[in-house]
């Protein structure tokens, strides 16, 4: 007797007609036909059942603050930074917690059950850290929330930045962050990378740095990050987020850089929505796309995962908490239109991101956590095309969100009474 059985599911690896049995919050069996009873059964009706979506790069302290204290009229990164600088001194713990919890509600409805959030430590009050630690505790039953100590105004550049970051880590933040390209000089940026990696090594923590989020091809802090990762023995525990300068680097230098990143086992986190919106702003035409070299990094064997980054905050007035929207943009910007390409993009929203965050028990294997999403699509390729509706979201075997199928009613003579957009794609042999 199981707690729950999901029947007739399609899995991301291409298997179809699969049953998934759940007991005590874990996946107890995955098989073509499970002859057993359960307290509840859900018929997936040939739709995709996926592990939950994972966002390895977000700013929960700023989310849903759009319009405070004013709008970003230019839509640029620099005005967004200036706006956050105006808002930060008047932030309260209560308001931060309220906005973050509202965003987590939205995330759950989108099947997004693991998030890594950067937490600005540039304000010595550290009200952001206090608030997000409280949120981490509140959402623990339904979201895995990791917190990065992020010196947003620069580890060295911000007055008191060194002390504030260490105090934030002492408070219980999980990961060491940085932003070397925002330091006053390239030398200061390189020094910050070395100092922050040493802190991570001494404390036994991972590293996740905003790195080279610029169109400047001479911003090469990722090279230093790779070298310091090896020097401190942090291989596999370090993430380079954004890396947009790689879009503008010459190919010869990149041919040296990518093997260095591979040696260091750097986790790469592009943020397609933000990168395509904020980069290339100084260009007329041709205008650079600004996203890092996703295809080349994947082909080199690096773990590439995509972040949402922002939702309705000073930097980005859009966003929905939908990681499929992120992947949909990635397909276009990276020009990864092939079937296998799209499967890799889907992995970058799920299993790759789970690897970046070091999530235990993630996936659809027997013995893993019973965290699942049923989507209104038959496979990952269709899920990306449709930005598919999440029909059922399950956490540790418990249904925590449901949505009705997205079906339109028609009133046309001689035509069908309803339209399901998920039923339109042709069956492609071998897809």
UniProtKB/TrEMBL annotation:
Residues 40-400 form the Amidohydrolase domain. Its EC number is 3.5.4.1. Keywords: Hydrolase. It is an enzyme of class 3 (hydrolase). It holds the Pfam family Amidohydro_3. PANTHER family: CYTOSINE DEAMINASE. This is Cytosine deaminase. It comes from Rhizobium viscosum (Arthrobacter viscosus).
């Amino acid at each position: 007797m199981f707690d729950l059985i999901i029947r007739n599911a399609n899995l991301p690896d291409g298997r179809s007609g699969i049953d998934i049995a759940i007991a005590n919050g874990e996946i107890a069996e995955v098989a073509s036909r499970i002859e057993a009873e359960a307290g509840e059964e859900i018929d997936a009706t040939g739709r995709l059942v996926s592990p939950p979506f994972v966002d390895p790069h977000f700013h929960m302290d700023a989310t849903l603050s759009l319009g405070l204290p004013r709008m970003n009229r230019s839509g640029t990164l620099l005005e967004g930074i200036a706006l956050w600088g105006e808002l930060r001194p008047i932030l309260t713990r209560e308001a931060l917690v309220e906005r973050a919890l509202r965003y987590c509600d939205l995330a759950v409805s989108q099947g997004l059950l693991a998030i890594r959030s950067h937490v600005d430590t540039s304000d010595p009050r550290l009200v952001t850290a206090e608030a997000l630690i409280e949120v981490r505790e509140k959402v623990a039953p339904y979201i895995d929330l990791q917190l990065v100590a992020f010196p947003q105004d620069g580890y060295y550049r911000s007055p008191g930045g060194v002390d504030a970051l260490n105090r934030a880590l002492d408070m219980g933040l999980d990961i060491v962050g940085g932003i070397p390209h925002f330091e006053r000089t390239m030398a200061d940026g390189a020094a910050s990378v070395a100092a922050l990696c040493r802190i991570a090594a001494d404390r036994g923590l991972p590293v996740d740095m905003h790195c080279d989020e610029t169109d400047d091809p001479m911003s090469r802090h990722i090279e230093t990050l790779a070298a310091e990762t090896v020097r401190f023995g942090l291989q596999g525990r370090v993430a380079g987020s954004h890396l947009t300068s790689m879009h503008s680097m010459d190919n010869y230098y990149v041919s040296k850089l990518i093997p260095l990143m591979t040696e260091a086992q750097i986790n790469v986190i592009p943020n397609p929505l933000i990168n395509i919106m904020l980069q290339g702003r100084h260009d007329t035409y041709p205008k650079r796309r600004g996203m890092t070299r996703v295809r080349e990094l994947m082909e080199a064997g690096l773990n590439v995962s995509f972040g949402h980054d922002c939702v309705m905050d000073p930097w980005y007035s859009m966003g929905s908490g939908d990681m499929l929207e992120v992947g949909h943009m990635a397909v276009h910007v990276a020009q990864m239109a092939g079937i296998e390409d799209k499967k890799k993009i889907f992995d970058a929203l799920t299993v790759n991101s789970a690897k970046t965050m070091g999530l235990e028990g993630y996936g659809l294997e027997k013995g893993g956590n019973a965290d699942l999403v049923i989507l209104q699509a038959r496979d990952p390729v269709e899920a990306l095309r449709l930005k598919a509706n999440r029909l059922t979201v399950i956490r540790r075997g418990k249904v925590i969100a449901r949505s009705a199928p997205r079906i339109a009613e028609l009133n046309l003579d001689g035509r069908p009474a309803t339209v399901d957009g998920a039923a339109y794609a042709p069956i492609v042999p071998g897809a």
